[in-house]
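ESCALATION

Customer reports they have been waiting on this structure for their group meeting. Please prioritize. Original submission:
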Amino acid sequence: MIVVCATLVLALSIGTRLTFGLFLQPMSDEYGWGRGTFALAIALQNLVWGLSQPFFGMLADRYGPGRVVAIGGAGYGIGLYLMSQATTPSALHLATGLLIGLSLSATSFAVVLGAVGRAVSERRRTMAMGIASAGGSIGQFVMVPTGHALMSSMGWVAALGMLGLTAGLMVPLAAVLARRKEDPRQAAPPQRMRAALGEAGAHRGFWLLSAGFFVCGFHVTFIAAHLPAYIADNGLSAGLGATALATIGFCNILGSWFWGVMGGRHSKKLTLSSLYLIRSVVIGGLVIVPVSDLSILVFSGAMGFLWLGTVPLTNALVAQIFGMQYISTLFGIVFLSHQVGAFLGVWLGGYVYDLTGSYDLVWYISIVLGLAAALLHWPIDEEPLPRLASAADQA
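Update from on-call: job pushed to the front of the queue and completed.
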């Protein structure tokens, strides 16, 4: 039940967030904003999400993820309503950037996967996290077409209001995550948080993992926010933008499970390197091949298969090296790097487009960053720390 409810929470939280790219053009056209205005709101959202993630991770480690998710679900619904009523850039930035950013921090991977990781054995942890992470893609597959249908039938204002009501469903789901079920085989000597933070800060692999996750944030947020507009700019139908995002979500359902299984059977750091390398190849293909309905759908399917596979691998690697006691806190810090990358990806996309009228430069940057991330993971020492190894031997 913990895995099922974690999957549903992530479906609502991440799936709803990934509909925001559909609102870029209609809101910008309605109020005469440049794309940079909306892109800055999403960029701020990602930065607030990342900066507050370690804090919400600490709250989840101390008080349990259920309470944190319940508060976040309520805030998410309110934020979407305020976003629908925003008529000025500052109002948009406060609702979309600040409130929804904080709510995402309370209802996303660091908090939710912490509950999943504690409930299963180490052997099954990566796969269980992969299944739960696929919830974000299930949500994307369901919520993006739903958001597009609501916009078509009711207009974008009412569509945001309806999405806000749907986000409120996370509050009752949080009750199951409040059960602090923990697999007894994961027992390790208790540790103070300050010691855990110092231990992670002195570990080179922790910072390499964080640097690699920066690239993931840059990739997925730039694509989610700007792909529908990129498709329209190339003369293709607006409906294809929603189809492309839904395709990414559907393929990531399989991809999250696949990469979770691969991480459970093989070296997690090498699996991550392979994933980032393939991403660069896929993005390069989009740049080289002439844009058409087929090329967009092939790109969306391939990128979807690689979309959130980094999350269970990265989370499980943090747990493998440092243990489970402060998993939400430590992954929250790593996730901060992800969100800094997300901020730059979505903001740079809007800035470069307004400056040059094209997204080409950002696609090229994405290719280079993917190659860099593939190299960064190779030197990581993924062996558990000595104190964990000693506890395992005693057990």
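Sent to customer with the following note: The first helix runs from residue 2 to 17.
Escalation resolved.
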